[in-house]
Specification:
Length: 99
């Protein structure tokens, strides 16, 4: 693959990883059903409801599939995209480089 083809593949992998992450991960205050906490960034109390605490962070829906498709697969796709984008050209590519 030449440099332009590598960039197209890397960009496509990054877009797929971003879409998967946004589909399966939810930024919320914690009052959603069937969601597991992944990371809680901060908590705040609701002044209109004493005793109610909002846990703002990233939540995962869809159980194990959410973990796999929302975290593991996007991280792997981004790693492959970096490898493709930053990899050395193969010996077949050397003939296509400008002189």
């Amino acid at each position: 693959m030449n440099r332009n083809q590598r960039m197209v593949v890397a960009t496509a992998l990054c877009v797929i990883a971003t879409v998967l992450a946004f589909t399966f991960l939810v930024w919320s205050h914690g009052h959603i059903s069937n969601a597991a906490k992944f990371v809680v960034f901060y908590t705040n109390t609701d002044p209109s409801y004493p005793g109610l605490v909002n846990y703002w962070g990233i939540y995962i829906r869809h159980g194990l599939a959410g973990y796999l498709l929302g975290l593991i697969v996007p991280i792997c796709l981004l790693a492959v995209a970096a490898f493709v984008a930053l990899g050395r050209p193969s010996s077949g590519d050397l003939g296509t480089l400008p002189r």
